Each structure stands twice: as structure tokens, then as C-alpha cells.
Amino acid sequence: MRYPFTRLGSFECSDPFLNKLWTICARSLELLSEDSYVDCADRERVEWTDDSPPAFDCTRVMMRGPEGNGNEYWGDSRLLKALLRRIALTQQADGQMKAHSCSERWDIHAIMEDRSCDWVIQLRQYVESSGDVALVNELWPALTRLMEWFMSRRSARGLVLAREWEVWDNPLRYQVCEGAGLNAFVYKALRDAAWLGGQIGMSSASRGFASDADRLRTNFNSLLWRDDEGSYCGGLFGLGSKTSDRLDGKMFTGPFVDGRYQPTAQAALFALYAAIVPDERVASVRHWLLDHLDEVKGPMSHYYLFHALYAMGEPQQDQLVLERMRTGWKPQVESPWQTTWEELPDKGGSKAHMYGMVPGYFLAAHVLGARREGYVTDRSILIEPRCGELVWAQGVVVTEFGPVEMSWSKLVGGEVKIQCSVPANTTASLRLYKHGSGDRILVDGQVSRAASSGNFLETTLGPGKHEIHYPA
User: Are residue 164 and residue 237 in the same domain, yes or no?
Assistant: First the structure.
């Protein structure tokens, strides 16, 4: 039985293809939401930790959940909560968790180290969205046992030796090594565990997780960095490493130099996403990634790619996101299924799968341009349209505080006109690309001098409806 979401988000823009793509993503979310999120509707219907991202991201900007006891559930987090609890119940004696729940499946995908990192990351995302720290208290013993397993897997070099992060286009998938992808996610899980511990008063444990994260970050940047490439090796191979025959039916071989696998797009993507890259190296890693976009092929890798491209804060990269959507998702939009797929090209995977839902979140949160910013108790949103070459867009973005009505258009001469609403008891940061040298933004007929921040101008909006013109 499907979860009774109400689709209150909407999206329409000057490109009919993107309009159809958003609708397909929303429909797929509705089809794949049951007691929790399930991976696909045409095959196993199992709850996997890697169903989110993108499931919960899309929920937060598209859906309102069923009400109860007078409560409103905007950006309903209850399906993610159910997933977190059931995955915790699968924890094994050594501390690891199954990659999925509600399934007797025991094969190479039953225990997946990367999915365990997802579980920690999702717990923080849940708390940031809901404010429900009681769940952290409930799951804290499971979290600490899990992190102890990762720390027990540290090699003499100080990196975690385990199976590498498994996305289908990662050349090191299934390989046991000191992989860049997995170690980046262990770092993020440690950081998130430290944050979660701070929320429930576990100060000593929180400091321990933060210290472990700092050491891992140092070792990661010392051992995996390739100065001649300006990016990160895919992984280190040596004592304790294993190769698998899962790849193309033969033993794994690849371009190794002194036991290090060559830099990969996945290593760069996960390092950027986990924020393990020092500030002075960020520009180099981004440049390397842009030169190797042909290595990014799967829908889940595009989730991290789109995050990386929008983080660059450059109009040409905003446009690149739209172009990747148009080319990668073209078969899905044209298919009679009208659902999102497991793979971007038709390789025989599921035709109603969570993985392909990635664009739905970015079209709402970045292109239309509204999303929650920070912890839910801060009651703060960001209004930041990333227009690309689109001429106009309009719709509704759901936030934890209620719906945000958005409409923007580009006028002759480069002026941008925005109409938006900010929910009650909520403040919004308005962030727009700089246009020339002016710092004046017209807000509700009043000139506001905006603060400069990189390529952007920024000012603050209060609750209610607003009309903005820039340049003023």
C-alpha cells in the first residue's frame, strides 16, 4: 500500500522537457513510498539505505505527509525515521548493519560498508529536518558499535581498509582496499556522529569521533592526493587488499602506480561531498572533475555531481546541470513507463527505481530555488534561483515550515524579477548572482543594499509575499 503523500510541490519552466522530468520524479516518489522508501516497484521492493539520497531529498521539497493529532507534516520525515529504525535492527555482532531491511537476502550486497555510512549521514539529516533528538538517544548504542567497526578496520597507514564505495560507475566497486570513496564517507559519518553526540550530551564520545575524523582527514590528504593530477587517487592497494572477479568476469586489473589506483571522478565527487578536501585544494579538485565528466555515468553519481556543480557557484556550471539532465534522462522522459530508472542508459535494470529520481530535488531546490538552510529550529530558508539559460520558472517548493511559492523571470537587459513567499515565523536569505558592479536589490519597492559574498549578493527577507527586482 502506498504512503498517502499529498503532492503540494510543483514545477514549471520554459523547458517542457524539464517540466515532464520533474513530474516523473514526483510520480516515482509516490509509487516507491510504502512503510518506508523501497528501491523499485517492478522487482524486489526492499528498503535500502541508499534509497535516500534521493528519496528524502525529494520528499522534503515535493510532499506533505498525512496529518495526525493536529500536526502538519511538511517535508514528512517519518518514512526516513522508519528506515533508520529497521536498519538498526539488522545490526550484526561485529557492529555492521545490513544494507537493507525487510528482506532475507544474504549475498554480496547484504552487508555493504558504504551503506552503513549512509545510515549515520541519514540520521543527522533526519534530526536536522525534524528536530527529533529522541531518535538519536534510541539509536546511539547502535551508532557507536557501528563506528567502532570502522575504527577497527584502520590500517597501519591510518585509512579504513574495507570494500570500496559501490556505485555502478566506480571502477573500484567491490574491491577491498583503502578506497578514497569509502574513506571520504567514513570521514563524513564520523563528523555527523560527533554532531549527533553533541545533540544528546555525549560530549566525550563526540570529541572522540571528531578527533578520529581529524586524523582520517590528515591521512586521506597525505596518502591519496596526487599533486601532479591535482586530485585524489581512487584507492591504495597493499597488505590486506583483495581483488574481485565481479568486474567483467575476470580478475580486477587497472592503472596502478606504486600501489595507488589512478585518480577517479568518484574519488573527487565523494571527497568534495564529504568536505574532506582542504580549502586550498578545492579549486584544483573541481577543475579535475570538470575535465573528467565522461567518467560520471550513473544516476546516483549524478546526485553528487549536481551537488558539486552547484557548489561551484558559477552560471556555466548551473547550465551544465540542466544539460546533463536533458541528455542522461532523455530515455526516461520519452519512455511510456513515465517513471525513473535504475540506470541512465537502458541496461536492463528496474524501470521504476529510486536512483533515477535525482533531478526532482535539484529542479525544486536549486532551479526553482528554495530550500531549508541549517537546523530546522533555526527556521531559515534560502531563496536562490539558479536559472541557467531558462527564461522563467514557477511553482511551489515544500519546506519543513510550509510551502514556498516561487516565480522568477529574466527580463530584457539581464534583470531578474522574483516573486516568492516566506512561511510564517521564518526568515529567508535571498542570494543572487552579481550583475555588474551594483549592490542594490529592489525588495517590495524599497532599495536594499545587499552584502557581497563571492559571486553573489545576499540580503534577508521576512515572512510574507515579496517582489524582487535585480538590478534595481
Answer: yes
